[in-house]
Amino acid sequence: MKTLLLLVSVAFIAVTARAQDARLVCLKINDLNTKILNSIISRPEAARQFKALIIQLSEYLPINDDIIWTFPLQGYTASAIGGTNGNGYSDKGYNFLDGNKHAAHPAHDIFIKDKNQDGLDDRTMKAVNVLAVADGIVIACNDKWLPESSLRGGKFIWIYHRSQHSISYYAHNSSILVTPGDIVKAGQKIAEVGRTGLNAYKKRSPTHLHFSAFALAGGLPVPYNPYQQLLKSVKK
Ligand SMILES: [Zn+2]
Q1: Ligand 1 centroid vs 135 CA: distance in angstroms?
Q2: Taking the mean position of all CA atoms in its chain, how far away is CA 107?
Q3: CATH code for the domain defined by 1-236
Q4: How far is the CA of 111 from the centre of ligand 1 (A)?
Q5: pLDDT-derived band of residue 6, with 50, 70 and 90 as boundaries?
Q6: Which SUPFAM superfamilies does the record associate with it (predicted)?
Q7: Ligand 1 centroid from CA 187, angstroms
Q8: Which one is predicted more confidently, 192 or 21?
Q9: Domain map (residue ranges) of the chain
C-alpha cells in the first residue's frame, strides 16, 4: 500500500512538474511573439528560438485524439464565415516572422449578428463565446488593447495543438479568459467576440472573430486554409 501511495505521489509530482515546465515554455513563446509583433528581434533569431521552444513544448504534452474540431463561435455555424465558399482566405505573401506588418489574410472572418456594433449578439443581447477548436495549450495571448494601438490582432490568443502539431489563432476579442500555459479542451470558452484591433475597431468592419490555422512546417507556423475543417466541425 505504501509503495502504491509513493508511486502515485511520484507520478503526481512528475505531472505537476511537467505542467509547470510547459507553462514556462509558453511564457517564453509569448515573450518571443511580442518581440516579433514589435519587430524588435531579427528574423533568423526569432526563427531559431521559436523552433527550439515548440519542440521543447511538444515534449511535455501528451497526444490526444481530437481530429474533429469544435466550431469556434458558440451558437454559430460555418454559414457565418465571410466570403463565398471560404474565399476570404488568402495566404500569399504571409510570413509569421513579419509580425504586425504581415501581408495577406490567412484567416476566415466569422461574423456575428451585430448591426449596432455594440459587440453583442442582436438575437440574445449577449456576448458571443469564442471556443477552442481542439485540445491544446495557450502559447501566446494579448489581453490589453486601446483604440490608439496599432496592433492589428487586438486581444488575441494562440493555441498549440499537440496531436495535430498545429496552431490556432483567435483575434479581435473583447475579453480573453486564458493566459500562456493554460491547458484548454476542445469547445472550452476562451474569449468573447469583440472589435479590438486596428481595423476591426473601425466602423466599416462588422463584428467578427478572425480565425487562423497554422501547420508547423520546419518548426515555424505556416498558415493553411481550415475551411473544410470548419465545415465539418461540431457546433456547440
Ligand atoms: Zn480577418
Answers
A1: 23
A2: 12
A3: 2.70.70.10
A4: 10
A5: low
A6: Duplicated hybrid motif
A7: 21
A8: 192
A9: 1-236
